[in-house]
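The authors assume throughout that readers already know how a fold can be written as discrete tokens. Each protein is reduced to its one-letter sequence and a matching series of backbone shape codes. I therefore recommend that a typical entry be quoted early in the introduction. For illustration, here is how one protein appears when written out as sequence plus structure tokens:
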Amino acid sequence: MIKSVMLILFPTLLFLLKEHFFLNDSNKRGSKKMELVWWDEFDYSGFPDKEKWNYEVGFIRNNEPQYYTERRLKNARVEDGHLVITAIKEAFQDAEYTSASINTRDKFEFTEGRIEVRAKLPKGKGVWPAIWTLGNNIGEVGWPDCGEIDIMEYWGHNPASIHANVHTGDYNHAKGTGRGGKIEVEVPWEEFHVFAVEWYPDRMDFYLDETMYYSCLRLNEGMGEWPFTKPQYLLLNLALVNPEQWNTEIDDSIFPVEYKIDYVRIFTWKKNRGQ
């Protein structure tokens, strides 16, 4: 009986210890104090938790060749403590490839704080995994006026670079005014890494593990430059590039290819006493 209780309590104790040491380390490096407000540790099996995640379905954006499926374990499942998003080469709904994209829209939306995701990237020419956010007012104002925060973008045809980007109405890639940065990593798919953004009122700092490699500063030019006073929701997806648009190819020998997420954690900044 004691052994059974310990087995039940151990995962909870381990998570609390990890949170404790993370917060202490953050305070040491000068960050604001944080409070964990939303998370998914993927400590269950089957479909992603329907109380936390929605699916995108179909051909969604960028003329990408994959069809995003809904509640299909082949493309999105939780097993062995990880969310596994799998892109597959197969004939499905007029597509040659399938994959999955999940998000927290209308389930959890947030403004400012730290968003971190521990993930293992897929390998191969053609893959385009991402960790990103969109404004919850996208249905009213559209993209890019809603704002987009790309916490991590990775293109398999550029295998040593990990990117962060920020898109707004005035600053976006369509206008050639996009803001972003990158960090070079020799073999980023070999191990799990922590991808994070710390979102403050005046800037966003982007991290790979403990390295802050890009900071996007608020220029105080209005909503077209900084719509990030309104809530955003989180997306996790594994896309494939459109070869014609990217002047590259998809290596069909890599399929099925997996994108693994160990956890997602969202923190808010703790207010000082008296606030």
Summary: Helices lie at 2-28, 138-141, 243-246. The chain has three helices and 18 strands. The mean pLDDT is 91.
